[in-house]
Amino acid sequence: MSQPFPKTFVVDIGRSYTDAFIVSNDKNSLVIEKKLSLPTSNGDLAFTLNTIIGQLNVSQEIPKIFTGSLPEAETQAKDYGAIFVSQDDTTKEVTSWLEKNSFKGAVILDAGSYSYNPTIKVGNIGAFVTKEISETDIENYFGNKSIKPQSLPVKPIELDIEEAFYRIVFSSNNNFVSSKSDVINVVISGAYFSKAPKKTRLALVILDILSKGRVAQVKLDTKLFLHSFGALLKQHPEIADWEVEFLKDLGAFISFGGHGRVTLDYGFADNQEISIVEDEIALLPSPKEQKIKIVFPDSKEKKKITVTGGSFGVLLDGRTKPLRLAFGKTESRSALERWQEAIEKVEMME
């Protein structure tokens, strides 16, 4: 006879932040009773963990599960009498769970997994910055970031630099680049995007990294719970069938690479045909429960896909891909500002 799921303390120790949760079962629904996210004290992880345990009133008896991207995470698990689950295993568990829930071949783009390194060309980052800036300014930003990795950007130009960095690393993700799926299923996680108040900026990042003709169905980890959930799945497979609420459906993102046309079948009597002009970004409102069959009548094979809606419904991108941007060019900065203004005008469905 299987044992009932115990109230559990689960921790994800990241390079920048340590995210901790106390979870329990309520009629086969996984409930996050308490949550705390604190900057990781590199070199003294025990300080961060002791602070979290104290603030969440974690008892000695409660089962503990640790995961984390830092090598020291496994050692800390032993010190605190916790079970350790590697992030390779948490990723496998989550992708398998998503597969069973009809989100097949999911590509996880975790902002917390990336840090700046010299192989990334500063000019490529600078091409996405809307204000005048030097390569030295960008290098100094990441130099300061290496000292305080948990610091979040505040100034507009810092937001630009941070998002430009994620454009570069996300677009280089091998699973993302090599996906052969007609619709790439993507899960975004990490403190920067999960905590970001303006999800429209994330939407633009996703559109920017989609090459011509690509479509992405996107979910966002709003609670920084992805790896903790994977660790729980590893130890308690029964929760795979429970209700969970930490992934937000952002919708479908379509990159035409220029002007384009689609026919949308919402299951009603008449289909809807939508055309967009070059450089246009348009949103078609559609809730997450809505399935939409889309036909691309101008493609050679009259490509057909099925997507679902979400906060952004279906986003159509008519900009030329790859984006024609260059570091230090006034026309590039003007284009970036124009696209940001366009995406900010779309109305999200919460």
Global structural class:
alpha/beta
Q: β content, as a range? A: 15-25%
User: What is the 3D shape?
Assistant: globular
What's the story with the biggest beta sheet? 6 strands, mixed
Mean pLDDT: 92
| Strands ordered across the widest β-sheet | 6-7-8-9-15-12
Return the string of H and E elements: EEEHEHEHEHHHHEHHEHEEEEEEEH
In helices, the fraction of residues equals 25-40%
Query: What oligomeric state do the depicted chains represent?
Result: single chain
Number of beta-strand segments: 15
Number of helices: 11
Structure description:
Helices cover 32% and strands 25% of the residues. The chain has helices spanning 45-55, 72-79, 87-100, 122-126, 135-147, 156-171, 174-178, 191-195, 199-209, 226-235, 330-344, and strands at residues 8-13, 17-25, 30-39, 64-68, 83-84, 107-110, 184-189, 215-221, 247-255, 260-265, 272-276, 281-284, 291-295, 304-308, 314-317. The strands form 3 sheets. It has a 6-stranded mixed sheet with strand order 6-7-8-9-15-12. A 5-stranded mixed sheet has the order 3-2-1-4-5, with helices on both faces. Strands 11-10-13-14 form a 4-stranded antiparallel sheet, with no helix packed on it. Strand 4, helix 2 (72-79) and strand 5 form a beta-alpha-beta unit. 36% of the residues are buried.
